[in-house]
Amino acid sequence: MTEFTDLLKKFETEENHLRDEPKSLILVVDDDESIRRGLGSVFSHKYEVLTSECGRDAVEALSDAVHCVILDVKMKEQNGFATYPKLKAKSPNVPIIFYTAFQSEHDLQNVINKFKPEGYVDKGQDITFLDNLVANAVRKYELIVQNEEYKRDLEKKVAERTEALKRAQEREHFLDQQLRIKEVLQTSEDVGAQILHENKNLLQPIGNMLNRTTHLVRESKNVLGFLEQRPALKEESGEDVDFQKLQYLVSSLESSLGTAELAYREIIGGYEDFRQVYNPREEGLNDIHRDLQSSINLIIDRNYRSFIDVETDLGCDKVPKNYDSRQFNRGVFMNLLKNARDAVIEEKVRQDKGYRGNILVKTELRNKKTIVSVHDNGIGVPEGQEEKIFEKKYSTKESGTGLGLYTARFILDELDYGKIYCRESELAGYTTELVVELDLEKE
Q: pTM here?
């Protein structure tokens, strides 16, 4: 033990310099208590020393915090050669030094080739040799850990940079799409304005003709009704007229004219909806309630009103300074309403009879924000999918594109308008609520 004593004296002279520095952890595995105690005393001046008396306990005690393992070869129950692969399986990078009193019983070259240990030391060898091996092993493990941390940090930075580039590409693609859409919409506005002008001239005479014809048919119906009540007058006419058939034809004509008049009004209403949404607006003229109503009229039109009731509770019309009516109409409000409408349609298909859709559109002021919420009693969003529905190309509908709500969030994020999210509606009779928060303090 004189070598242990000499090494202890050497370490004691360095102890004051190392006292304030954090010590690395090493694991000593030996079934001889005197060896464990001796190595613990020698290395405790430089390292935190953990000891185990058998291989099973060593595997259990091993963690990533252990920088080096000194492993006895000849132990009861489980020898060092059987313990080595189990230690490596748990901590692949930890350096392991075989420490044995029976080195001559094993072929050194075979042991090195098979296990590739950090060292293979005879217990009778100079203890300073083991000390140097442990020091090199600890330093090696520290470099491995630093390298792993560097790799993780680098991978994180690469992932962040890749995500930033992806978002930049998406933004560039989105802006390019917006430019093309703007050109198409400008064309549609020009065409729409021309259609409105030309069809106004064309439809007005049709409307006048329908009114005149309807008036004449109603007058004829009144005359027939008058004659029906005075049989003597019918007989005085001297003509063989089938008044019942004539009344039937007049009634049929009146019904057809009513249908034509309704169709005429729907055409006029459709042009008005088109004009409200797509006509150019005066600079700085932004009315969120008008925009919402225009989107409602266009998305939930007369074809859907037979089974969908739409209510509005519009309490706040304040908008951020950078609010743009056309961006919100086409990119945000229409997509919210489409989502609500489609959810109602799916629920109607599922329930079939006795179901009626309800959609509620609300605006309110809360915490210096204008809150726009769309509630519906449709099929609902699957649990856990409230955030996923805003991902690109994700849709719960077979026919969905997965771009509507993604576009709405993209506009709000990129133009820094506010935020959008989905949650279960707290209002009685409704299932889902889509919420847009507009920050009124944004410049």
A: 0.45
